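Appendix B. Chain record.
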Amino acid sequence: MVEEAVPGGGESVEWHCFREEERERMDCGAESADPGHHPYRRLKPEDSVIIVPNIANVRDHILWSFFTFFFLNFCCLGFMALAFSVKSRDRKMVGDPEGAKHYASTAKGLNIAATTFSVVILITGIIVILIQVSQ
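Structure tokens predicted for this chain:
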């Protein structure tokens, strides 16, 4: 954005260049030989700018939740983790990063608990079977 003072002490004018390609093609910032041509496009009052928060980096742990649900579903913790992962993804699509982080954190905790308990039970079961077979 470049601000220029208007002759006569009026308001300053803001000029914006929107694309990198335009900047390279039109050489934004350089003085043009044609005084009527300005390399920047002036925003009109009807133009609007929508600022979209970057929530793509919120992890919803959906794949881990599917794996836990299908293979390590100890006391339905995998199902609950999957439900919270879906809620996290829904919050992310709506544009609520705080809600998405909250649900993703809960899904992560449930996935950890389900995985830990299922692995402990699996190892305990294998040990009990090996002890019984060896006797």
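Further analysis of this model is presented in Appendix C.
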